[in-house]
Amino acid sequence: MMFDDLRDLYQEVILDHGRRPRNFRRLENATHTARGDNPLCGDRMELFLAVEEGGRIADAAFEGRGCAISMASASLMTEVLRGLTAEQARRMSDAFRTMAMTGSCPACEGDIADGMERLSPLAGVHEYPSRVKCATLAWHTLNAALENSGREASSE
Fold it and tell me: For position 6, what pLDDT does the model report?
């Protein structure tokens, strides 16, 4: 029974972020951008990061369209990225992709643990393999933005 309550709560979080995504806007002072595309389902997004000189992410935002899982993942991601270094963001991206594919997160500890806990509503996506690409599109786009501003990302 408690597991069902938790699943319901997680579904509510995903639906809320999917319907009313946070940080859904163009970031005018972006230092890093990338576009992401999932051609199989039509999810598309553009990610904007404002990275300070010391390498810390000061702000994150996105625009695009997609399913509730895709939008919720991008929305939650932009919330947890603020204040992280680019290296922490990369580790979080790797940990998130593992969580989305397996439902568990062995690397969800240390300085990324709090952010990963906030992303846990998306852990259940592993039960729906066709939706993993939806959940990970924002994270592939993040990696592209951090590596080479303006690069195209794909979750194929």
Answer: 57
